[in-house]
Amino acid sequence: MSPSRTLAIVALTTTLVSCSAPKMPETAASEAQVTVRIVATTATYPLALDLLTAYNTTVEPVRSSIQSTNFHAARRTMMRDPSLYMMTNALPSDPDLWIAPIARDGIAVIVSDDVTVENLSLDQLRAIYQGRITNWTQVGGDAGPIIVYSREEGSGTRVEFERMVMGPRPLNARARIAMSSQLMIEQIRATPGSVGYVSSGFLRSSVRVLSIDNLLPDTT
Question: What gap in Å lies between CA 29 and CA 47, rounded to an integer?
Answer without folding.
Answer: 29
